Amino acid sequence: MKYLPEGIRRNEKKFASLDEVLTSIQSGEIIEGRVVLCDSEHNLHIDLGIINGIIPRCEGAIGIEDASVRDIALISRVNKFVAFKIKAVEYDEAQMPYAVLSRRDVQLECKKSYTDKLVCGDIIAAKVTHIECFGAFIDIGAGINSLIPIDMLSVSRINHPSQRVYVGQLIQVVLRKREGDKLTFSLKELLGTWEENARLFSAGETVTGIVRSVEEYGVFVELTPNLAGLAEPYGELQPGQQVSVFIKSIMSEKMKIKLVIVEAFDNEIKNQELKYYIKSKHIDRWDYSPYNAVKQISTDFSS
Questions:
Q1: Would you say 230 and 256 are in contact if contact means Cβ atoms under 8 Å apart?
Q2: DSSP, res 115
Q3: What pLDDT digit, counting tens, does each position of 102-151 carry?
Q4: Would you report the helix, strand and coil content of the chain in percent, each value rounded to 5?
């Protein structure tokens, strides 16, 4: 696909002659390069081999010129790959040539040809760029950012998005909501239904889980990102702690899994590798609950 998140291609280009640079201007090709400097005027500098490239501040991103995007969006690009086009070759005071680049042009093209055409239910590749307590920001193409709210990262509840994803991670996401240019994405619908996840386990097995919350009546233990069970109270536990659990029973009609904690561990927990259950590029509806479940949980992307 033409408009991938920045840093995936890493097709860092080094030009050997000015003729190659001029040819790139004519072709309008999209190039990626690593930002080596953000100067005091917030222009981004990129080494293009025989010539240096500069992305002027106003060409650094959509929204910089009208101040709807803060300059931190440029400062944070240092030592990271960005996509751009070469617009022109100019000369500095010492008559040394440099290339004028535009990241904004690539984003505008990406927006017009790709992100503006996305509809709810479309599934795309994205890259996690930044994490806040309320959600994970993702690059959906050419450095255009969107958000996955924390409650859309999985069915199993987490206290912080870093418990599910990490910065730099390439993930699949589904468009959940569009409000003008504001796009909100979700991850949980791609991580399997209750039955698909429960099918991985059987009563009588002892498996590893992660404590997600501790209540007076029991402990909620995550078995997969979209599946958790309730264990009987057990000593002093903390959310995020790893435990081994015995599976007493699996009840699909109630969407309940009864567990018994066998042992608790203090070793560091790494995020589980995400497993995707939907291979298509679009879904209209997702039903998490089994058909015979008392409680029905679903997402209608057509509404």
A1: yes
A2: G
A3: 999 999 999 999 999 999 999 999 999 999 999 999 999 999 999 999 99
A4: 15, 40, 45
